[in-house]
# Entry
Amino acid sequence: MTSGHRITRHDLSEGGGRITSALSQNAAAGPLRSETTVGLALRVGQRWLRARDGKPATAGNTAGGALIDMIGVPFDGMGRARGQAGAPAALRAAGLQAVFGPDVIMEPDLVLPGPVAQRAAGSGLLNERALLQMVDALHRRVRSSLAAGRFPFVYGADCSVLLAAVPALRDVAGRAGLVFVDGHEDATPMDLSTSGEAANMEIALLLGLTGERAPQPLRERLPALTPDAIAMLGPRDHLFRQAANVPTVAGRVWLRSADEVSADPAGYARLAVEHAAAHGSRWWLHIDLDVLARSEFAACGAPGEVMLAGGLTWQQLAELGVAALHSGGCAGWSLSIYNPDLDPDHGAARSIVEFVARIAPSAARQHPPLR
Ligand SMILES: [Mn+2]
# Structure
């Protein structure tokens, strides 16, 4: 932050939720978030944050880059009792709060219904009720953050967060780009899905390649992405797709496999941004941690899932992330798939926090703000 007018550090607690805000004097809140589940803490925080002079949130922020909104998503797409839904709290316990420095708003986690490990009758989606509420609530949060000129950092859950983040970016910016870093293509058509997990299908849904059976609240935001605005880095899932008879999308979208990316992570990251931003789009950065080799990160996945050989190292992923963000134009970032139930000694959580700390300074430098 360059304004030098930081006036206070404000902590509010409600039900274990905690908001820490450190804003410049002339930074103000964006459009009031209408989400009812956010609760008292955020509403009080917004009252405190509201503009005193009516200027937008970006007024004091154009030179210093974006303020970060940290948005925790306690959602597990498989409907497990904790699983990835435990990720936000576990990552904060490992020190995630501190890595972005003081220019951050730690938002309360989304409040979501309990998990149901069953597929819905109509759509076949697993844990559908929680999924739809997650997408709806996160869409509003991300849209509001972007519209206020801030940089949303979405952590926890799985790749289904993109069903909220990408439409939100499209809504605010007019069109969205996506740099998608994942061990899988996540482009399974709904009728070929054996699990019903939205996190295997979200790219196909965003591109409009599938979704006739999707519930209306999802369908009305789709498609949200054109094939020329996505760049995929790191897929190595041919055995996984073979098992479900799902063809690759490599012929339809820009894609560089894990083997290619590991040879030059920074170079491919720059090419990916160039591609995703080619039509002037601001772009979203998504990192599914299963892009990493199992020897680097194993706190993800489910019993019986096809394990993927190969994959990136933390070092390669950090080079990729820094190079992508240094290319400019990133509007927000999501980091998903961590399952603390598979991380009893919290070693993976610490690795994630160290990784975020390496990328965070570049995220905070993204400017100009969207609005
Ligand atoms: Mn994924």
Notes: The longest strand covers residues 282-288. The mean pLDDT is 84. The two ends are 18 Å apart (CA to CA).
